Amino acid sequence: MSDSPLPGREFTRRSLLRTGTGVALGTTIAAGSGLLRATPAAATNGIGQTGAPLCQLPGDSASQHGLGSGDLGIPYYREHDRSWGYVFGDSFNAGNTYLGSPVMLNQASFDSSGAAPISFSYAMPNGTAAQLFNYAHGVDNGYGVESTRIPNDCIEFGGRTYLQYTSVVHGIGGDPLPAGDDGSLMSGVAWSDDFGVTWTDYPWHWDGQYRGVNQSMYGMWSFAGIDPDGWLYIFSKRWNGSHKNTADQGAIQLFRINPDEFRAGNFGAQQNWIYDGSNWRWATDGTPPSLLFAPGNNIGEFSVKRINGTYCMSYLDVTDGSICTRTAPRPDAAWSAPTPQIVANNTWPPNHWGRPQVDSPYGGYIHPGSASATSLTLIVSQWTPQGAYRVLQFDGINP
């Protein structure tokens, strides 16, 4: 999670880690409490799960595999055995002991109809939830002192799993961060040839604020997938610890790369989607990608996936206080206007009325196994001062 997902929130990842969790995350919030105003667990409106909590409930499938509390829950398809992975950020066991980040739970079979909520079958790397990467928190692991490595997206193809992450600096720049400080040390891509048991970092890293490149547009990625044209399409944006980007309000860019070049770690072989003043085109000369949308609302975590031939995008609109969606027929085509789907307050503005309401939502990751491009499953995080720190499942989302 990026720090401070909504205006006025003072409870941040930094304060949580600094105080040794500070709140009893495993058991303080129960399903159906006042914190979650969407219909919990079993929905009755015909669109499947509408706010089903996937962790933080005693005895749930996450706790059975060692995860008591965690956020993000980024879903990806494990094509080698047709199962599903869910990558969490900073995580804790049922006793509120910090497990680290990233952490992964897996699911043998996903029900895209939403008739049953996601139930986890096992945990990586060895059956019990544990940190995937071999690095230490609060020390210099070779790049500068880092607090934690937050996953942004994961993809598997050609027998290899790839996880893009951002290394976040702990306690530097204020808590919460001032507007304009991205709070990151660097971003990188790690790969695994045993499907998540062991991981190796590519030597190519993208510097963040505390390595001299504040608000790098390569801080946070989303793998849209390999298109039928053979290219791997990747969207990226600035990592933003404050969620108040001063440069472009969290705008998004697009690049693509041959999957074999990506596997080899030859990231310089990317082609960038640019606007040259009169036309959009793919650039092969290193010209930086252009922003897809005009500067506007602050954007936090985001997700792009190709669902049944349609490209679907979701993201946290910090200014609007909602998880929004857009669609496009191609990654390099025009995107539809944003539609609020899950809101922090459904009394304002009018386009929030009747939407599922979650206090302090963030994330909003598209499940690649969604039923269709008009019936998405979103994995939404919730983290509030009252102690809610979990992921929620929403089905039937029509972008």
Task: Describe this structure as you would to a colleague.
This protein has 399 residues and is mainly beta. It contains three helices and 27 strands. The strands form seven sheets. Strands 11, 12, 13, 14 and 15 form a five-stranded antiparallel beta sheet that branches. Strands 16-17-18-19-20 form a five-stranded antiparallel beta sheet. It has a four-stranded antiparallel beta sheet with strand order 1-27-26-25, with no helix packed on it. Strand 26 and strand 27 form a beta hairpin. The longest helix has 6 residues, at 13-18. The protein is globular, with a radius of gyration of 19 Å. It starts with 12 loop residues before the first helix and ends with a strand.
Count of alpha/pi helices: 3
Number of DSSP-assigned strands = 27
Mean pLDDT: 87
Q: From the alpha carbons, calculate the radius of gyration and give it in angstroms.
A: 19 Å
The span between the termini is 23 Å
Structural class: mainly beta
Order of helices and strands: HEHEEEEEEEEEEEEEEEEEHEEEEEEEEE
Note the overall shape.
globular
Uncertain stretches? 1-46
Residue fraction in strands: 35-45%
| Fraction of residues in H or I helices | under 10%
Strand count, sense and barrel status of the largest sheet are:
5 strands, antiparallel
Give a quick summary of the entry.
By secondary structure, the chain is mainly β.
What are the key terms here?
single chain; 399 residues; mainly beta; five-stranded antiparallel beta sheet; 3 helices; 37% strand; globular; disordered N terminus
